[in-house]
Design brief:
Elements lengths: L6 E3 L3 H7 L5 E7 L4 H16 L3 E7 L4 H6 L7 E6 L2 E7 L4 H11 L1
Parallel strand pairs: 1-3, 2-3
Antiparallel strand pairs: 2-4, 4-5
């Protein structure tokens, strides 16, 4: 799947902290390679981000970024947080239908 420049694979806490400060709605997908539901949600979020360039998508592998997972109290994955200007504006856990995700995005742009 081709990456677009509004989809960012997070590799450090500093990179994450900088990215969530965006004025754009920032969707953060906390996931792991071994998580079945994550493998369902990730391509859906990539599709949505690819079609909505006014948002950005951050993907955070919880196994590689345990400090971030702990900071946001991630107990179940996939866990999705929506940030705007560094503040959490919405979140959900698990797989959600595309239309419901799009409704959350519209409500929080």
């Amino acid at each position: 799947m081709p990456e677009s420049n509004n989809i960012i694979e997070i590799i450090s806490k500093d990179q994450f902290d900088e990215a969530i400060q965006s004025e754009k709605l920032t969707i953060v997908d906390f996931w792991a390679v071994w998580c079945g539901p994550c493998r369902v949600l990730k391509p859906l979020l990539h599709k949505i981000a690819g079609e909505n360039l006014e948002i950005q998508l951050l993907t955070v592998d919880v196994d590689q970024n345990q400090e971030l997972a702990s900071q946001y109290d991630i107990n179940s994955i996939p866990a999705v947080f929506m940030f705007k200007n560094g503040e959490i504006v919405d979140s959900f856990v698990g797989v959600m239908p595309e239309n419901e995700i799009l409704e959350k995005i519209e409500a929080n742009k």
